[in-house]
Structure formats: C-alpha cells, structure tokens
Amino acid sequence: MGAVHGVYLKYVGLSAASFAGYHLVLGTLGPLDALPLSSEPLMMATSAGESSLMPLLRVGAASVLSYSTALNGAIAVMFKLRRGMGLIGKDRVRGTLPMWSYVLFFPFHIPTLAYTYLHTKFGKMKPYPKEGDEAPKKKVAKVTVPVASEVQPGWWVGGCYAHKLNKKWAAVIDLTVEFPERCRNDTLQYLCLPTWDGVPASPAQLEQAANFCIAAREEWEHLRETGAVEGEPNILIHCAHGRGRSTTVMCAALVKMGMYANYEEALEQGIRPGRPCCKLNSMMRKNLAEWQRIYVEGKKA
After folding, report:
1. 264: closest CA among 254, 208, 201?
2. Are 223 and 143 spatial neighbours (Cβ–Cβ below 8 Å)?
C-alpha cells in the first residue's frame, strides 16, 4: 500500500476482495451451500445440535465482508475526489487516533497496519548509482529501505516507523491519516497534514509545510544559543513508507530553503541519492509545479 503509483487500486482491491468473499461465504459463489435469505429458515437450520453455530458464523462473516466492501469502496471514491481525510478521526494537534476509529473502521485499519508493517520490514530498494559509475554488468543487489533517511544534513525523509531511530527532532511533519504519531514526544514542533496514501499535500499546504520547516530550524538555533538544546536541528518529514507524500513536501522544503532551484533538482539531486525509493506520482508533480509557480516564481493564475 505504499507504492506511489496507482495507490488508489489498493482500496479498490480491498473492496473487490471483500465483495468476492461476501458471496463465497453466502454460498452464491463457490462450493458452499447457499444460506437461506430469510431469518425463519436460518433459525430452523441452526436448531440441529453441533452444526447450529456454522450458519450464524457465516452470516456474521458475510456482514463484516459486506461492510468492508462498502467502506473501502467509499475510501476509493474519496481518494479520487481528494476528500474525507478527516473521516478517520486523527487529532491534528496530538497526532493520535481515537479508539472509536479502530473499532468503526477496522476493515480499513487492519489491512493497512499489516501491510505497512510487512512493507517496512521486508521492503527493498536499488542503491542509487554514484556519479561516474558505469552501468553495472551484473544485477545490483537490493538493500533494505531504512525507516528514515537523512537525504541532506539535518533533513530526513521516512515512514511511520521513524520513531525507531530514537532521535530528538527540531520538527516533525506527519502526512499520514492512517497512523498515530509516535515521534510526538520527541519533537519540539509538530505539524500534521493528514492525507490519503498517494494523495499529495495541496500547493497551499506545501507552502505551509516549507515555512514551518524554516521556522522550526530558526527556533532550534535560538534555543541552542540559550543552551536549551544541543547539536544541529533535524527535521523529519514522514508518511507511511517514506516514498511519495513525504518526498513531495521535502522537495518544497529544500527549494524554500534555497538549496535547489526547483522541485525536480531537489528530487533528483537532493533526495533520491540518499533515498532511492523516493518517487512522485502525477498528482504530486502537478501540485509541486503549481506550488512552484505560485510561491516560488510568484505567478498567480
């Protein structure tokens, strides 16, 4: 679920798989006998001793699968419309997810949590080729994707497991709608811009995030002068996997800092050498181009 191209299909796939499972459990497809549609035959079917529980279990499973079909289908629609990011209930100040969200939206949360854990644990990427290297004659072995990567000194792109680095952050920008923020207690500044996986921050949000980074670095440097903190400021920008949403914001931040002239240079020269798995989908490129036109070049539509 972390791929930045065609992420929308994950919601469609979950909905379609749930729909197929619903019909399999009901017996309208596959080898199982069809369950009776009315409650009276069902109650009669459950009055025969040891086998009485099975029809009720099938009805319960069918209900869950029906709900999963509707929920993930609705999320697929909201993804396309780029709406409904507040539906999951994430607290944008504390970065927490309420228990009711896990209960009410469990067909969304369970596969998301499972996939992200596995993708983080086993995800691989090709090393970025060094400048001047000739094309390798042998296939290059892939390496494990870190939970977060320092793409420039003090600038980190990562996923929702970046807390495992156990670092103190000058600022954290959290772009997930689907995960609680686990670095909240280890950062001086926190900005939450919750978006669906694969959906980028808007041009206005990119500008907000870039300015937030600059202000956070200035605040850290001021505190360092007073002795309240030590060392250089570290900024973490993360999404679920540290590939698309976080890369989009990092491009804007590095350009805003004056480190690169445009987002293309920031991506290819400033980010991908340090984290080769970072990519941008068409929506991300479009929003970055619009942000650059309005806020960097100063050209209003």
Report:
1. 254
2. no
Q: Give the residue among 101, 120, 121, 123 at the shortest CA–CA distance from 110.
A: 101
Per residue, what are the HEC states of 196-216? CCCCCCCHHHHHHHHHHHHHH
pLDDT digits (tens, 9 = 90+) for 205-223: 999 999 999 999 999 999 9
Are the beta carbons of 183 and 235 closer than 8 angstroms?
no
Using alpha carbons, list the distances in angstroms from residue 172 to 20, 53, 146, 147, 251.
Answer: 41, 50, 17, 14, 15
C-alpha 84/C-alpha 264 separation (Å) is 29
Query: Which residue carries 């090393």 as its tokens?
Result: 127
Amino acid symbol at 7: V
CA gap 167, 202 in Å, rounded = 28
d(CA 201, CA 170): 21
Q: Which amino acid, 184? A: R
C-alpha 259/C-alpha 265 separation (Å) is 9
The C-alpha atoms of residue 299 and residue 290 are separated, in whole angstroms, by: 9
Alpha helices in the chain (DSSP H): 8-26, 39-45, 53-81, 99-104, 106-122, 203-226, 245-256, 263-265, 282-291
Quick count: other Cβ atoms within 10 Å of Cβ 100?
9
Q: Dihedral angle at the C-alpha atoms of 247, 203, 282, 77, nearest 10 degrees? A: 110
Residues paired with residue 237 on neighbouring β-strands, in sequence order: 157, 173
Q: What is the DSSP letter of 50?
A: G
* Residue 196 to residue 251: CA distance in whole angstroms: 19
Tens of pLDDT along 179-207? 999 999 999 999 999 999 989 999 999 99
Full-model pTM: 0.88
